[in-house]
Give the backbone structure.
Amino acid sequence: MDALIHNPLVNPSPMRKAYGEALVELGHARKDLVVLSADVQSSDFSYMFEAAFPERFINVGIAEPALVDVAVGLANSGKVPIANTFAFLFATRALEMVRTHLAFGGANVKLAGAYAGLSDSFDGPTHQTISDLAILRSLPKMTIVIPADSLAVRKLLPQVAAWDGPVYFRLCRNEVPDVFNDGYEPKIGEGLTLIEGDDATIIACGVMVARAIEAARLLARQDIRVRVVEMHTIKPIDTELIVCCARETGAIVTAEEHSIIGGLGGAVAECLAERNPIPLERVGVNDTYAESGPYADLLEKYGLSLEAILAAVQRVLARKQASSPHATSEVY
Amino acid sequence: MKAPSMNSVIAASVYPYGIQHTEAMVADLARRAYEYRVQVLRMIYGRKSGHLGGAFSCAEILTALYFHHLRVDPENPQWNDRDRLVFSKGHACAMLYTVLAHRGFFPVDELPTFRGLDSRLQGHPEPQKTPGVEVAAGPLGHGVAIAAGMALAARMDASKRRIYAILGDGELNSGVIWEGMMTAAKFALDNLTVVVDYNGVQQTGTTRHVMPTEPIADKWAAFNWHVIEIHGHNMLQILDALDRADEIHGRPVVIIARTTKGKGVSYMENSPAWHGGIPDNAQFEMALAELNEGARAWTL
């Protein structure tokens, strides 16, 4: 299979730089694109758009509620605004604006949540974002998209801009492995099967996609065939694909750079509970705040490591085995 | 002076007057404001739900804007180059709906459905349901920042369309108002006029008691806005202030309109009880009589 992904995964590239470049490219293609920032454009690299299109860049200062509201006014007047600040601020300080005007009012505003997950690692838990998916996913009509590498940012950003309605685009600050090759053609709302397998499925998003692929390749050496699905759209989530994976593999592991509560794992759990209950294990931050430190070390310490995925696959396979009517003493 | 295209837009409306502030025109607008109060009273009394006090305080402001000042086209509410009005004090929307209906955005017959099941006239404004409503409102404080975004878009489009927002004075408690004020001043948005319906009363008391906002004119001026203060129930002052605001260059304009909460009904005026209070039958009849008298006083 492996048609869409590099084998092995290639050298990491900084996602925020890819985002800045993608913004500029989109700015050339779309004259209605307006980029706003709450004075963090040097962090999230939207300064590249500011340099290219100063007349279409608005810095509202450190004022996230105004950031969203000004974007609402621009959207009302036919612009396609992309508002930029740290991810946690959209889901917390500016949440009422997002709820009232984007989700409820239908304002066609795009939110680019920078430094999501633990990727603002040294700044610590006040700046890390592990609850945004749970919060924003509960808003009717909100669309949530998470690119897994730099190519995904370039492929998905134009779709985010073209999407009819508000979108939350969740971005990593740091270098992430290049996962996809040029055959990757994501479409908002549709999950993608990256590796085939029928023993279990790992459904992953964002930076965890690379780790899910590594986990599947390691397990293949033990003759455990794990399917890997990239779920770049958390809402509306591809329920048909989830149900299909449940029926065909009988066990699912989710992997996300977010709390295990309410994000990708929560969405998959809801789907499975109603449509096709099977063993599920969730890999994510286990209902705690992290700390300051190097990004890779935080991912290891807070349950987002390759080993954590491998262990979750073993647990879910054991549960699958135990619940099977034809259970035998054989282990995988 | 308004852009020449205004005449054709006005011609599409029910409003018979031109752009000069004649005595007949001022009287007509002032009479309408009282007639719309009667309509709002019937809507809220009928549903036993809604906000009378703040609706009555902005009757003249809304009437002046929609029947005289705004370049809008009820036949084509989404006309791209329309002037925009952000109605930030969303709880007073019974008056907004009444003025929009009489301006021709939807049938006047629909007004009694206000706050009922399946109605297009929701308890607070919902842009996707009600023709003429620009943005959602209800949670307070959004008006200035949203209007600033609209004004920035108009500038990017090199459009002469103007942007208006109507705020309550109570919502000046909210921090995002001041964020929006700084943004509009930073970008020198002189295509933006904010009207503060300064009725001095909010839900649980006077604004002076709940959260002192004075000296309010000095505060806006210190934020680099051009400030005009008027009597907010004096139709000629409102019309003149809106015209003057159009002529200010280099700064956004705020019109502090000194108004009376519950204006037009003696027992409601200046009373926090009538922020969300519903009259009983006797009170309804009394209010109706006083408002009808108010309208008659302006009938030439």
Summary: The mean pLDDT of chain A is 96. The domain at 181-323 of chain A is CATH 3.40.50.920 (Rossmann fold). Chain A touches chain B through 29 residues (CB under 8 Å). Residues 36 and 58 of chain A are 5 Å apart (CA to CA).
